[in-house]
Amino acid sequence: MEFRQLKYFLAVAEHLHFTVAAERLGMAQPPLSQQIIKLEREIGTRLFVRHPRRVELTEAGVIFKERARRILDDVDDTLEYIKKTVRGESGKLLIGFAGSTVFHPRVATTLRLFQHSYPGVLVKAQESNSTALLNKVSSGEVDCALVRLPLDCGTLVVTPLVEEEMIAVLSASHRLAAQRSVDLAQLATDPLILFPREIGPELYDSIISACRMLGFSPRIAMESPQISSAVNMVAAGFGVSVIPSSMRHIHADGVAYLKIRNKGLKTAIALIARPRDSSATVRNFVQVLRDVSRGRGPPAPS
Hints:
This protein has helices at about 5-15, 20-25, 30-45, 60-85, 105-115, 130-140, 200-215, 230-235, 280-295, and strands at about 50, 55, 90-100, 120-130, 145-150, 155-170, 180, 190-195, 220-225, 240-245, 255-260, 265-275.
């Protein structure tokens, strides 16, 4: 049985006339009749009762009409789904993200624009730290990931989203809290709260190096589980910290955010993906992210 036979049958079943059905199909009436006879032989029963000027469905024909329509609809739906998947317009996208990246508005803009442009794609998010996300992307556990730079990404493809400065976060009672900016050297005697080095070694080392270039080695008083949790630890009075500037959106009582006057202490957010990834969904997400990073594309829907 062929799909075209189902289409021929449904045309006759709809018009109940071989000649009219043949005209609608753009074919001659004799070949159509032959295909219906062949179909009836394959099924083992008659599907139509033939009259001189019309035909009518047999009981088997009524049942077969319903099933044939369902089969062709399923085929059409499957083919359309496959086409959309190939174009990256349907399916799933599993994105990993480092916790500190979600505070930057460009991350939210990228996700909103992607979902607006590709509503048929189900986006799932998995939070982790940047170092762990390198392994998750490489192993295929996630499709791509938003990480915090600097970071040694090896052979993975890195697409930058945005660069930002690092800022200082002090308790509201700190002697320098009323200032708008601070020099790192002014914090040399303060206990420093940093994230564990293993979750972002390059960023960790850049902070330590910046301090040493100013002539002091910071006193690490406590480690925060994630970069974002350092703010609450500062609010609790455990010390000062250095965080990405987008994290000033964390509204915590009892802290002050100050610009760091020393130049060069920066970080960035980037998307990492596997090289030569064949997923059209990932390629589409990368393109949306590039458009956002360049300030292109339509405004994010509200």
